[in-house]
Design goal:
The protein is of the alpha+beta class. The protein is about 20% helix and about 30% strand. It has one domain: Double Stranded RNA Binding Domain, CATH 3.30.160. The longest helix is centred in the middle third of the chain and has 13 residues. Bound molecules: zinc ion (ZN).
């Protein structure tokens, strides 16, 4: 059985940005921290104001920080189509993610549409 390929860099920033825009984010800011020394890793911080709370996430790239924001926004929310808890797959998976499929509605990146889709086929 072939192993699923996982690669977060294959998820387009445009697809991630679309999920963020769909979430009713108001204020949104991305800051790149200036490195103090050559050994410092890059750090991107995102501040986002949702209707009911703030989310602040960080990552070593804008994409990584954006994917963490998407997880913070959507993980555990109820799917409007199937009623299961939503879970965001933050890596590109060559095939549909199946872990806990009976209990979770996975939101995963599809290269066919260059966007995220749900395993139940419902709207994002
Ligand atoms: Zn669903």
């Amino acid at each position: 059985m072939p192993t699923a390929q996982r690669d977060p860099d294959r998820i387009s920033q445009q697809a991630v940005q679309q999920l963020i825009e769909n979430s009713k984010v108001g204020f949104f800011r991305v800051n790149e921290r200036e490195p103090v020394s050559d050994d410092d890793p890059p750090v991107f911080v995102i501040q986002a104001k949702l209707p009911d709370r703030w989310e602040v996430v960080a990552g070593s790239s804008k994409r990584e920080a954006s994917l963490r924001l998407v997880e913070a926004i959507y993980d555990g929310t109820e799917c409007p189509n199937c009623g299961r808890a939503s879970a965001v797959e933050t890596e590109y998976v060559d095939g549909t993610p199946m872990a806990l499929f009976a209990h979770l509605c996975w939101m995963y990146y599809s290269t066919d549409t260059d966007s995220f889709t749900r395993t139940c086929g419902g709207p994002i």
